[in-house]
Amino acid sequence: MDSLVSVTEEARRRLGEARSVAVLTGAGISADSGVPTFRGPEGLWRSFRPEELATPEAFLRDPNLVWEWYDWRRGKVAACRPNPAHDAIVRLESRVPRFSLLTQNVDGLHREAGSQNVIELHGNIWKVRCTNCHEVGDNRDVPIQVPPHCETCGGLLRPHIVWFGESLDPDDIRAAFEAAESCEVFLVVGTSGIVQPAASFVSTAKRAGAFVIEANLDPTPNTWIVDVHLSGRAAEVLPSLID
Ligand code: BV8
Ligand code: ZN
Known about the structure:
six-stranded parallel sheet; 11 helices; alpha/beta; binds zinc ion; three-stranded antiparallel sheet; about 40% helix; binds ligand BV8
């Protein structure tokens, strides 16, 4: 018990003193808001096959099926609000001179909570992109008309989301690696650490000398390389770590 208290204190102290912090979040931080995670016993991938739904090939094959899945998820996310973990990250950003938030989540809850310097690595479920003219726009319709079409050119719209086999925005990747390489403390919250390239930011930060803190319900492939693993729900662990 003593050692658990002291590692938590060490994590708190490091975070309190750091002048540059990068945070990487995954589905686990939004689980406490009611957004389903991807993997794990109740994860989305238990009921759906990602290769049938979250790939460009799937969309080419059956855009309606893919849109129906996203429409269902948009309905779920629309009913969710940021939780105390999202709020704690907003407070962290307000006191740290150099701060970056890298999120794999597409639910938009970090921005809704008030986070400013956010990189949405995998896109945003409330954005659509035209497959013809490539214009990106906001769309908050719940339900959305399936399939939706571009108001400018009539082309088929797709979710503005990075699917498996697609490249992330090069500017986002550059900024994310820069943040991981230059921060004093790297905080990784609620991600299984499986999906690349996001998963590799953790080892990048560690190699570059950052103090790495992981907050997760369970151990992950990252747990053995981090300095401190804090076990528990993000909505409980983060406020007590940050405040
Ligand atoms: C790319 C759709 C270049 C969006 C998603 C081998 C080596 C390297 C790369 C690869 C490889 N094999 C394949 C690849 C490439 C692939 C990849 O990484 N595959 C993995 C599965 C092996 N990556 C890509 O394709 C990426 N692009 O590499 O480009 C390229 C180009 C062409 C060809 C090849 C390469 C693109 C990645 C696309 C990601 N898009 N989905 C959507 O509709 O949402 S991924 C999906 O997983 C989500 O987007 C999500 O963001 C992401 C990560 O998941 P997590 O957020 O970690 O969520 P998960 O459910 O897994 O875990 C939840 C965690 O929270 C758990 O640890 C749990 O314990 C914890 N938890 C739960 N509750 C709580 C909690 N913790 C705290 N509190 C709680 N309450
Ligand atoms: Zn268009």
